[in-house]
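Incident log, support desk, overnight shift.

02:14 A customer reports that sequence design results differ from what the structure should imply. Their input is reproduced verbatim below. On-call engineer (initials T.W.) acknowledged and began investigating.
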């Protein structure tokens, strides 16, 4: 087999392959003979169909399979010998003018780029840190209390206020006509928790049991109910029942109800702190990892393989359609999703992946078995039976590979943070959590 490789442009290459005709012919004959031993045809016993008839019926398809197999083998053997890192699948076409007794093919393909990393010492990275404050613990305890609150009837004549649970009947009309979802009886919600639109809560706040009220409500332009989005409805609401919330005290009874070992308030606060610190650790790791990868990627120089970008685009489109299907969208598989909408993100992902791979190769940052084991144990620590979770990870190579990828990214982050120009920044707990309430213990 003779091989010739030429550069077309940037990462695109063309390889010319030649194969002896007799190699193809011998393999075709071997496969036809094997097929003849099992093929069934009317008028012949199994295994007794003449070779000329087998060749006439199956010769073309077998020839096609053999050509694909042999040319594919020849291509990847030649690529390995030439130490080419092939990105994606080659496009192979038969070439005219081959020497007698041979067949020739052109294989057009891409190779992975050489990644030129920037000066690490001049790479600027912002590293954030967060302390779990006593205030964060207090607010998390408030969430736990709310999850276990009870409700009791308010005194007669009391006015509805924030934190009360109300039971109402309501009916809404747009231009004098009822609309889907605009009417309900014995509907319950808690005032001040954003379960209803602000205008609705404002209308009910201050009402007494037995009272009715009419009020206008303007639906937002981005309201999930598209048939009423951007329109104004006239509502009538009647308050039928009013209950006040009672939150349990932060005491030993609450600690015991939460299954806290020791059952004391001190143990409860320590348990909440432990859970918050674990959540903070994971969020900090994710944020600092992203900052490190963005910084080194911005400094790196490389060309992107079109095949890799297309593969990432295909994955993103497939995931998008799967998400639409999960939401119950009809014909999600046929939904028109323009590739250009996903292309910038696909290109960015490929760029980051190539830079990550080069950092790992250049600085020996591969994940060790010990690191993988430690990461699995850490992931399992928040579960009730950690040993079962550890077995679950080690029972599937794909799950273990995901953990290995996580460790590898952590190794890269640690390397960048140790060698780049790092600026330390302290965030508040709320800033890290995106202004969301702290997670329950």
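02:41 Re-run completed on a clean worker. Output:
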């Amino acid at each position: 087999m003779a091989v010739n490789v030429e550069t077309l442009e940037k990462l695109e290459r063309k390889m010319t392959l030649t194969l002896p005709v007799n190699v193809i012919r011998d393999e075709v004959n071997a496969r036809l003979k094997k097929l003849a031993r099992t093929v069934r045809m009317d008028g012949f016993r199994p295994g007794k169909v003449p070779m000329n008839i087998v060749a006439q019926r199956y010769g073309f398809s077998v020839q096609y399979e053999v050509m694909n197999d042999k040319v594919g083998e020849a291509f990847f053997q030649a690529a390995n010998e030439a130490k080419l890192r092939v990105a994606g699948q080659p496009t192979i076409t038969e070439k005219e003018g081959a020497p007698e007794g041979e067949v020739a093919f052109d294989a057009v393909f891409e190779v992975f780029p050489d990644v030129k990393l920037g000066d690490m010492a001049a790479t600027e990275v912002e590293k954030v840190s967060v302390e779990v404050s006593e205030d964060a613990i207090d607010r998390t305890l408030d969430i736990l209390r709310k999850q276990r609150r009870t409700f009791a009837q308010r005194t007669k004549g009391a006015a509805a206020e924030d934190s009360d649970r109300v039971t109402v009947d309501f009916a809404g009309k747009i231009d004098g006509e009822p609309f889907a979802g605009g009417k309900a009886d014995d509907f319950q919600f808690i005032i001040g928790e954003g379960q209803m639109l602000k205008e609705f809560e404002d209308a009910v706040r201050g009402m007494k049991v037995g009272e009715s009220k009419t009020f206008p409500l303007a639906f937002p332009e981005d309201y999930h109910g598209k048939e009423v989005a951007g329109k104004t409805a006239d509502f009538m609401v009647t308050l039928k029942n009013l209950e006040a919330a009672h939150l349990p005290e932060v005491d030993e009874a609450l600690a015991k109800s939460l299954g806290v070992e020791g059952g004391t308030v001190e143990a409860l606060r320590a348990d909440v702190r432990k859970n918050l610190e674990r959540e903070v650790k994971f969020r900090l790791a994710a944020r600092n990892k992203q900052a490190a990868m963005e910084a080194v990627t911005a400094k790196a120089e490389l060309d992107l393989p079109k095949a890799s970008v297309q593969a990432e685009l295909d994955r993103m489109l497939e995931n998008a359609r799967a998400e639409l299907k999960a939401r119950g969208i009809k014909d999600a598989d046929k939904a028109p999703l323009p590739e250009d909408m996903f292309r910038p993100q696909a290109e960015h992902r490929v760029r980051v992946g190539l830079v990550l791979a080069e950092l790992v190769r250049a600085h020996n940052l591969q994940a060790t078995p010990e690191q993988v084991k430690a990461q699995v144990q850490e992931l399992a620590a928040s579960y009730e039976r950690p040993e079962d979770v550890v077995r679950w990870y080690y029972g599937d190579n794909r799950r273990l590979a995901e953990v290995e990828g996580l460790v590898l990214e952590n190794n890269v982050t640690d390397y960048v943070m140790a060698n780049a120009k790092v600026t330390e920044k302290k965030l508040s707990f709320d800033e890290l959590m995106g202004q969301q309430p702290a997670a329950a213990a």
